[in-house]
Amino acid sequence: MISVRDAIEITLANTPRQKTIETEFTRCIGAVLAEDIVSDIDMPPFDRSMMDGYALASDDALLGAARLQVVGFIPAGSYPKFKLQPGQAAKIMTGAPLPEGADAVREVEKVRLHDQGRVVEILEPVKPGLNVVPRGAEVQAGEPVLAAGTYIQAPIIGLLAATGKVNVKIYRPPNIAILATGDELVDPHIKPMPGQIRNSNSFQLQALCTRLGLNSTILGVAKDDKNALRFQVVQGLKYDVLLMTGGVSMGDLDLVQDVLKDLGVKLFYQKVAIKPGKPTVFGKIGERLVFALPGNPVSSATVFEVIVRPALRKMMGYPVYQNPQVTAILTEYFANKSQRENYHPSVCWYEDGQFFCRPLETRGSGDIASFARSNAYLICPIDRTEMFENERVQVLLREDFYLT
Fold this sequence. Notes:
- This protein is of the alpha/beta class.
- It has four domains: 4-18 and 173-316, MoaB/Mog-like domain (Molybdenum Cofactor Biosythetic Enzyme, Chain A, 3-Layer(aba) Sandwich), CATH 3.40.980; 20-42 and 138-171, Molybdopterin biosynthesis moea protein, domain 2 (Alpha-Beta Complex), CATH 3.90.105; 48-133, Beta Complex (Molybdopterin biosynthesis moeA protein, domain 3), CATH 2.170.190.11; 325-403, MoeA, C-terminal, domain IV (Beta-clip), CATH 2.40.340.
- The protein is 18% helix and 31% strand.
- The strands form eight sheets. The protein has a six-stranded mixed beta sheet with strand order 7-4-6-5-9-8, with no helix packed on it. The protein has a six-stranded mixed beta sheet with strand order 16-13-17-21-20-18, with helices on both faces. Strands 22-25-24-26-28 form a five-stranded mixed beta barrel.
- α1 packs parallel to α6 (297-316) and α3 runs parallel beside α6.
- The protein is elongated, with a radius of gyration of 30 Å.
- The model has no long low-confidence stretch (mean pLDDT 94).
C-alpha cells in the first residue's frame, strides 16, 4: 500500500500530455491553449473616447468656461477626416476615435450648448487625456496576451477575437470510457430486486468528466465473469482513459486486476493509503491510462478528485493539476480510526475573511445521500487520530464549493 502523495506522483509521472490540434476559436471553450498568443494590432487601435461628449484640445479649456465651435460629429465605427483647429470641438460618441488636434473629451453632462448646438460651452476645466484611452494603452502590437496553458473561458474567447486569432492550437481533450463491474448492478431506471443496487458510479463519474469539459462514454456494466469482463475492457482500452469501478478488492469475484494484467496493462499500484478508496488501481498500456476505482460511490468519487482529476488536467494541458486546498477552522470534533489519510466529505464556507469546515456525519463509503450534501473534503493526515473544534485544518475544495 502506497501513500496518497506517492500515488499522485506516480500517476502524474506516467501521464502524458495530449497531442495538440488546431481548431476554430469559437469551438475551444473549456479547452487549454497549446500556444502563446500575441496581438497583431494595438488595442485600442486609435485614441478612443470613453464617454459621449465633445472632443477638444485641452489647451482650449484648461481653466474651463470656454466656448468652442462644433465642427463635426464622430459616431463609433467611423474615422474623422477633419482636424480640429484651436477653438474648435467635435461631438463624439463612446468608443469613437478622436480627431487629429484633440487630446481630451468633456462628457455631455458637463457642457452647455448654444446657437442650436453649433457652439459648446465647457463648464469645467479639462486636463490632457481626460476620458480618453490612448492608442495601445491596453495592448500593443506584438505584445504577448495569452500563454500556453491558459484555460479558455468566455473572456479568453473575446480576447482571441480581438486579436484576430480565429484558429488556435489546443491540447486535444482525452476521451474517456467508463465501465462499472458487478452482478449486483442494475440501470437507474430499474427498481432493484433483493441483492441488487442501482449503478450510480458510472453516472457520477460521467458528470465529473463533463464538468471538466470532457466527453465520456458509459460502456455499461460488466458481469462478474472473466471472459465477459475481458471483452468490455478491450473496448475500453480503445479510449485515452478507461475508468472502471468495482472488482478491485480481494474477493473471489474481484477479477479486474487479473484481466488488466492479461491484456498487457502495466500496473503501478493496487492499494493506496486513502480513506475512502484503498483498493485503487492505476495502470498504463501504451499512452492509454487505466484507473480501477472502488465500487462504493463515495470512494470512487473521492479517488477521482484526489488522483484521477490531476491526471486528466495534465493530459488537457493545465499548468495546475489539483483543486485548491485552503486552511479552514474546524467547527466540531473529528475522529480518524482508519490509519489512512482521510478525505472526509464536508461542508466548507467562507465567512468574515476565513474558511470554515464542518465534517458531515456519514455511514460509510456507500452513503451517497450524505456525500451529495458536501462541497469539500476535510483532509486528516495518516498520523492523526483526532482533530478538534476550532483547530486549523486543510480542506480540499471541490468545484461544487464555488456554486454553494
